[in-house]
Design a protein that fits this description.
Elements (H helix, E strand, L loop, with lengths): L2 H24 L4 H5 L3 H4 L1 H22 L9 H26 L3 H20 L4 H9 L1 H7 L1 H9 L1 H6 L6 H21 L3 H15 L14 H9 L9 H23 L1 H11 L7 H14 L5 H19 L3 H13 L10 H10 L3 H30 L21 H11 L4 H17 L2 H4 L5 H32 L1 H13 L3 H16 L4 H22 L4 H17 L9 H10 L3 H11 L3 H10 L9 H4 L4 H27 L10 H15 L3 H20 L3
Helix pairs in contact: 1-4, 1-24, 4-8, 4-9, 4-11, 4-14, 4-24, 5-6, 5-11, 5-12, 6-7, 6-11, 11-12, 11-13, 11-24, 12-24, 14-19, 14-22, 14-24, 15-16, 16-17, 16-18, 16-20, 17-18, 17-29, 18-29, 18-30, 19-28, 20-33, 21-22, 24-27, 25-27, 26-27, 26-28, 26-31, 27-28, 28-31, 29-30, 33-34, 33-35, ...
């Protein structure tokens, strides 16, 4: 297919996909919803199937239309090769089953999908011709998505009734969908998530080969394919996939619309007008943009790319070392995942998994987001004092203008709708409509309204890799639950840590960070919550934390740790976005980004360390204490965290308030004092505060 024709087809399909999702907002209020029963509009399962169909179709067409850089031979290619080999096992079992069942055509179809979706892209780094063939044949994979989708729509009810004894084509369609998902995530994100999914599928098949307590009888591939494809609330079209359908797609559509209307540029200008000529202003504006952009986007990588492109030359003019500038930008962009009202996909998974209002998650995210921003700001303040950053005068108009408030209105509108009890879907739909109406009143934006279809199409293209990774997370969760692995893991973890809540927290912290090295926040949270949350909640409750508070604090702790995957090397997507903007090695940026806002790794474990520690989330103590005691706990906890953040920032930057370099022993001592203040233990806080004050006073008495 010619490139121009392909792009036109992609554009039209993306707009159709966007309009389908937008129509779902108003469909329940139309006569069509109660006069007719249309599966893809009225049945939750088929809505999810349609959503996944659009993700796959648009994803593969986007991959063919856009020239994506092929990864070289390295560790990730080795993981891709492992994915190819391991995926061949269930594929072989499925094709064998189909041949034995008298369906050789279904077996041939399945082998073709495996070859196109996994074999060709894995071998692409070996030869440019392989890469070109893989990209060119992606259109066949896009077309192949039609078959399992139509099959699902036509035989939806029959598929449910024959889950235990599926027919051959049920198995073929189920494993085809899984392979298509694996192939698309491999192309856009990498091999880690598909590899995890395949490993859990193999565990479900070959669990009988393992010793106890990890032993289980095992399932055949036909049963697993049916569970993945056919069962209501199961793997492909289950609870986690519903997060992409109900929340994520609407926020990405909003982001696409706001981008083409010029809201991002307007927000950047708003912060530039407040920039001033202070040497500290470049870093301050970066953090402000991180918070502001985070209010209208849940993507850390996208925000990092925008902020990096906007601020790169200003950092250079100010004299920042490239790695430091990129580290600050990477952290500021990552604020998007925890800045309300538009949080990352993990926040919506929490809503679905523990069944709490989204407004609660927003409240719980406010103080951790502000503390994260404070850690970046304080590092910048003390670093600038010591390194000698120059003041930069950005040529923009000064003064206050009501137009500066326009970029923040959609986020404010979402907050109002949510706190008045409306659905997130309706809130975002109203924000999209309001953003268009507001643009009519701003001369700089008015001309962009004609680009509205382009914004909708871009929103659908942006959601494709995010949505399929969320769907794979649903597959992973289902495979873990089917085998009972989460229960076995909980028992093993409790046996390992005994009755020690701190040990369980340390284990879960390390487990989340380890997962985050290779997989995005969604999969990190899903796995860590499945495998570690039950044990932590049990130990937290035993230590005296009320059960409701323990539940909320545990899941927010795991959410926050999963968020750090976006900025933790070697894979952190925000680091790669910063690397593209600053033309620097992403691994080096990742290391610097990890160090720039070092306290961020301590906030999350402190949330569940004690009842007082959970006060930073507000809701756990608000729901289980009176208002006065809640205010006391929250205020004292924030003061302690802010003081600890301050000391660690000074130690991390390496310069005191007068711009003098701090010796290594002093930096270590200040860092330890800061850690003691962040841990929610009163005695340790007193020791940390005392040590920090003594060290700083001794520095101030020294001559410059």
């Amino acid at each position: 297919m010619p490139s121009a024709a392909l792009r036109r087809a992609l554009y039209l399909i993306a707009i159709i996909g966007a309009l389908y999702h937008l129509y779902l907002i108003v469909h329940p209020y139309t006569p069509l919803s109660y006069q007719y029963r249309i599966g893809i509009l009225d049945l939750t399962q088929l809505q999810r199937a349609t959503h996944v169909f659009f993700l796959l179709l648009i994803g593969y067409l986007t991959y063919q239309a856009d020239h994506h850089q092929q990864p070289g031979i390295g560790i990730r290619w080795g993981l891709s090769l492992l994915l190819l080999v391991l995926s061949a096992l269930p594929t072989y079992l499925a094709t064998n089953y189909l041949v034995d069942a008298g369906a050789p055509l279904a077996a041939a179809f399945l082998l073709t999908i495996w070859f196109l979706s996994l074999f060709l892209p894995v071998l692409s780094p070996l030869s440019p011709s392989f890469a070109e063939v893989s990209r060119s044949l992606s259109v066949l994979l896009a077309l192949a998505t039609i078959a399992p989708y139509v099959y699902q729509v036509l035989f939806y009810e029959e598929l449910i009734y024959r889950i235990i004894t599926p027919e051959p084509w049920d198995v073929a369609m189920g494993w085809t969908m899984a392979l298509l998902l694996f192939g698309l995530v491999l192309r856009f994100i990498g091999p880690e998530m598909p590899l995890l999914a395949v490993l859990f599928i193999l565990y479900n098949i070959y669990g009988y080969l393992l010793p106890r307590p990890w032993y289980h009888p095992g399932f055949d591939v036909a049963f697993l394919s049916a569970k993945i494809y056919s069962e209501t609330e199961a793997a492909l079209f289950g609870l986690i996939t519903n997060v992409s359908l109900k929340y994520v797609v609407y926020f990405t559509l909003l982001a696409g619309v706001l981008t083409v209307l010029g809201y991002g540029d307007a927000m950047a200008k708003a912060f530039f007008r407040l920039l001033g000529k202070s040497p500290y202003s470049v870093g301050r504006a970066t953090v402000g943009m991180g918070i502001g952009m985070g209010m209208i986007s849940g993507s850390g990588a996208a925000d990092t790319a925008f902020i990096g492109a906007t601020m790169r030359d200003i950092y250079k003019a100010a004299g920042y070392p490239t790695l430091v500038a990129a580290g600050i930008v990477s952290n500021a962009g990552t604020l998007a995942i925890i800045t309300p009202p538009i949080l990352g996909a993990v926040a919506f998974i929490i809503v679905e998994v523990i069944n709490v209002p989204y407004a609660w998650v927003i409240v719980m995210s406010v103080l951790p987001a502000l503390l994260y921003a404070l850690s970046i700001l304080l590092y910048n303040e003390y670093y600038v004092r010591g390194i000698g950053i120059r003041a930069v005068d950005v040529p923009v108009e000064r003064g206050i203008d009501l137009k500066l408030l326009v970029p923040f209105v959609p986020a404010l509108l979402i907050l109002i709708f949510i706190f008045f009890g409306y659905t997130v879907r309706l809130a975002v739909g109203a924000a999209i409509l309001a953003s268009v109406l507001l643009a009519l009143g701003v001369p700089e934006m008015r001309g962009n309204i004609r680009r509205l279809p382009e914004g909708l199409a871009e929103g659908m293209k942006m959601v494709a890799p995010i949505g399929v990774s969320i769907t794979i997370a649903n597959v992973i969760m289902s495979m873990v639950v089917i085998s009972g692995l989460h229960q076995k893991f909980t028992i093993a973890l409790l046996n390992l840590v005994g009755d020690s809540l701190p040990l369980a927290i340390i284990f879960a912290t390390g487990f989340s960070l380890l997962l985050g090295l290779g997989v995005p926040p969604t999969a990190t949270y899903v796995l860590s919550s499945l495998l570690t949350a039950p044990a932590i909640i049990k130990l937290a409750t035993s230590s005296g934390i009320p059960e409701e508070a323990a539940l909320l604090a545990t899941h927010m702790f795991l959410f926050y740790m999963a968020m750090l995957a976006d900025v933790t090397p070697p894979v952190g997507l925000s680091n790669f976005a910063a690397a593209a903007a600053f033309k620097e090695n992403p691994l080096k940026i990742g290391v610097k980004a990890a160090l720039v806002a070092l306290p961020k790794y301590l906030y999350a474990p402190s949330m569940i360390w004690s009842y007082w520690g959970s006060a930073v989330l507000i809701m756990p103590v608000l729901l289980t204490s009176d208002l006065l005691w809640t205010a006391t706990l929250v205020i004292t906890r924030v003061i302690s965290l802010a003081a600890g953040t301050w000391l660690i920032a000074i130690a991390n930057a390496g310069y005191d308030g007068k711009g003098r370099e701090i010796p290594s022993w002093g930096r270590v001592a200040l860092g330890v004092a800061g850690v003691l203040l962040i841990l929610p233990v009163e005695l340790l806080n007193v020791l940390g505060l005392t040590a920090g004050v003594v060290l700083l006073l001794s520095r101030n008495r020294q001559k410059s």
